[in-house]
Specification:
Layout lengths: L14 H5 L2 H10 L3 E3 L4 E4 L2 H9 L3 E2 L21 H8 L9 H12 L2 H24 L2 E3 H6 L1 H11 L9 H9 L8 H27 L5 H7 L9 H32 L1 H12 L4 H13 L5 E6 L3 E3 L2 E3 L4 E5 H4 L36 H18 L4 E2 L18 E3 L1
Parallel strand pairs: 2-8
Antiparallel strand pairs: 1-2, 3-5, 4-10, 5-8, 6-7, 9-10
Length: about 425
């Protein structure tokens, strides 16, 4: 009699698994609540309620350095040659814990306000309309390259005040840095991340210096000006915040757009419902569809946290010093949380759609409102102004698993 192990089904380097990990997730959820995965020496957490709880549990953290040294925690420090990447990454909100996280998020929130996001709405809609209109005028092409990628780049550049001539630099920098979030990244990925981190950090420092001399209406100027009882953001904290906005917000929105259209093409009945929602006077139906797209096939499949004190999950003790891999994609298809979770249903009410695609707890995505704005603008522009669009061919998948997406999405009219 054979004994199930996660390596039987959880194969993140297998192209077939990357293309469709969801059958494997069903087996993982059935096998247990905490499963040891030897290849990455992590505990896989596949169930929604556990993922949601551990995102909020202060006995875990994105870092351990606020409480332990590398040696005390039984871990090896990152190699010195990675320093440009680690400094940039480790000073961002996503990889900080209290009290540093609390302080920086409070200051950033004073600059990156709901009002700032609302004021971007006309710009976002104009950019989406222009990109969709250009693709339709060509009779089709690669939706991924023509709309999904340039829209969030343009929005983030607009928000940061990056000149139009410099905006083509952003996507390669983002791709170079985010490759390090994959499981066991290799030396080529490390070198690319270091180069991207050095170049983007230097660029942002020059831009910050320019804004100190001549402030504008952009977010960088606001980050420079923000203060709280005399406390201000350091230059490194501003640089890391801007890099996080690019990496986290941009990568997620690009892949959500392409994956959402892939599933709408595969489910023509849902595409018709989504088009009806986009044409309705109320935006509620379109918002429901966007949340279902985020739930059904989230780009961020896995989120890692360190265990700072012993915890227990489903009767399994996970000791201090361990790392858990929270499987967002599995959590979003958990039948214990969602009715008929394998069904793609764009009428599923957003109010009850408790997906974890934006995380939870103190690391809940600060840019979630902006991402929702961009997605609604992009899908709305296509659905209202470009009916009749069809998928030319099934796309190929990028090899990445943690931040998952397709290489291209060829469409025509």
């Amino acid at each position: 009699m054979s004994t199930f192990t996660p390596t039987d089904v959880f194969t993140p380097r297998d192209p077939d698994f990357v293309a469709d990990p969801y059958p494997a997730y069903q087996e993982l959820r059935a096998a247990g609540r905490a499963l040891w995965f030897e290849p990455t020496r992590q505990w896989l957490i596949p169930n929604h309620d556990d993922v949601s709880a551990l995102l909020r549990d202060r006995r875990l953290g994105r870092t351990y350095l606020h409480r332990y040294s590398h040696e005390d925690f039984g871990r090896t420090p990152p190699p010195p040659e990675l320093e440009p990447f680690t400094v940039l990454n480790d000073n961002g909100l996503l990889d900080l814990e209290a009290p540093a996280h609390t302080r920086i998020r409070r200051l950033v929130a004073k600059a990156f306000t709901p009002r700032r996001v609302e004021e971007l709405a006309p710009v976002v809609q104009r950019l989406a309309d222009e990109l969709v209109g250009a693709l339709r005028a060509e009779g089709g092409g690669d939706l991924h390259a023509a709309v999904a990628e340039p829209l969030p780049v343009a929005v983030i550049a607009e928000m940061l005040g990056i000149p139009a001539a410099d905006r083509p630099l952003l996507r390669p920098w983002s791709a170079g840095m985010t490759a390090m979030y994959e499981l066991n990244p290799g030396p080529d990925a490390a070198r690319a991340a270091v180069t991207a981190s050095e170049e983007f950090s230097a660029y942002l420092r020059e831009l910050i210096a320019a804004r100190r001399t001549e402030p504008g209406d952009d977010l960088i100027s606001a980050l420079i000006a923000v203060h709280d009882d005399g406390d201000v953001l350091s230059e490194q904290e501003m640089v890391s915040t801007c890099a996080l906005l690019l990496n986290a917000g941009h990568e997620a929105t690009v892949n959500t757009t392409a994956l959402g259209w892939l599933h709408l093409f595969r489910h023509p009945g849902q595409l018709r419902l989504m088009a009806q929602a986009a044409a309705a006077p109320s935006p509620a139906g379109l918002a429901d569809g966007v949340e279902e797209i985020l739930r059904y096939d989230t780009p961020l499949q896995l989120f890692e946290r360190w265990v700072l004190d012993d915890i227990e999950v489903g009767g399994t003790v996970i000791p201090r010093g361990s790392e858990v891999a929270l499987l967002f994609g599995s959590a979003n298809r958990d039948p214990a949380r969602f009715d008929d979770p394998e069904r793609f249903d764009v009428t599923r009410p957003a109010a009850g759609n408790k997906h974890v695609s934006f995380g939870a707890g103190i690391h809940y995505c600060l840019g979630a409102p902006l991402a929702r704005l961009e997605l609604a603008a992009s899908f709305g522009a296509f659905l209202r102004d470009a009916p009749g669009m069809t998928l030319v061919a099934e796309p190929s998948w990028r090899p990445n698993y943690v931040i998952r997406g397709v290489r291209e999405l060829l469409v025509s009219w």
